[in-house]
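Consider this pair:
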Amino acid sequence: MKTLLISGSRNVSGQTARALDAVRAGIEDAGGETETVFLPPLDIARCRQCEDDGWGLCLKDGRCVIDDDFAGLLGRLRAADAVVFATPVYYSDLSESLRAFLDRLRRICTRPTHRAGIDGKPALAVCVAGGGGGGAPACCRSIEWVLGNCGFSVCDTVAVRRQNLDVKRTALAAAGAALMENKT
């Protein structure tokens, strides 16, 4: 089973990366394969609300008119058996890079006929808050809502604080392993 790990963090060795590494270990220990993508270095523009009604080809054809890295990543996401989204928490919400990607994804998934390769796909979300860490639960609610609207089968959302990251790494590995068994 191939799982695509998508990180909204620029820091490849920071707290979000450490949390994602724990999920990866759980997936691989359960016999799954992983591929990791860090969004910040990619060229993924924010939605332009192309036409006067605020829509465009996303609503009509289930694709985006913007020529950047979005379409390639979407193809990899559709080809995967499961997806893990990990984000640092900023202002109780997703990182800007993950928000830009998911905003465009939910627009192309507006019509159920455009959800090929996404509808029912198992997904796990991990929200890692620094600072006081209080924004992680709100971030989890936000990403769960967006992923559900895209058609993913959200197996779990895990709120992590910098203060409990080391303790939660065991739970994150278990969530990764359970994702392979569809038991999360």
